[in-house]
Design brief:
The protein has 214 residues and is α+β, with helices and mostly antiparallel strands. Helix content is 36%, strand content 25%. The chain has seven helices and eight strands. The N and C termini lie far apart (36 Å). The mean pLDDT is 90.
Length: 214
Amino acid sequence: MSKTVYKLNVQLKGAKPECFRTFIIRSDCKMMTLASTIIAIFNGNASHIYSFDVPAKKLDVQIYIDEGMNDSDDDFAINVRHEQPSKHVDARKYKISDCFEKVGDEAAFLYDFGDGWQFDIRLQEIIEDQVYEEVSPWVLEGSGLGIIEDCGGIGGLERIQEVFEQGEGEEYEGYCDWLGTSNIDFTKFNRTAINKKLAKEVAKIDRAYKNPSL
């Protein structure tokens, strides 16, 4: 019996030019594996903690459980916002299907609380097809390069784009040294290259996040 496969669209919020990926993934995968997939296909390297905000389910899906911080967030929700706080759950234990049930369901993926990358996720299609199941996860389409780790988030990414467009100066030389290149195409998207290494990259990132002390 084939398992259900989800077609998801993920947008990097605030990115200019637009940066998105549409991909398939088995619905019975853990939320940790969804996170690993997003990190891999948007050029990340799994060096920071993350969480999912699933508003329809009132879930805060976390990779690092900080009970003190969660208690503080709950108090703020109750006493300041006057609303029921979200339930804090472990990304290693919750499945994608626990968070997304029907077409149109949405969530936000927050990666690196310093840089503050936000990815908006929408369930586009529910597929019952063994062929899709066997290749999951798999990128179908997309646009844009992705993120640059530790650059300062969307604002930092925009600044790097501006500097590389100028193509000269001390700041440009500094970025060239740091990034190891003198030219970046921020519109570049290579679906074939991403899919070729995706399964291995996701497995590697999953292993990195299985340690609860991260």
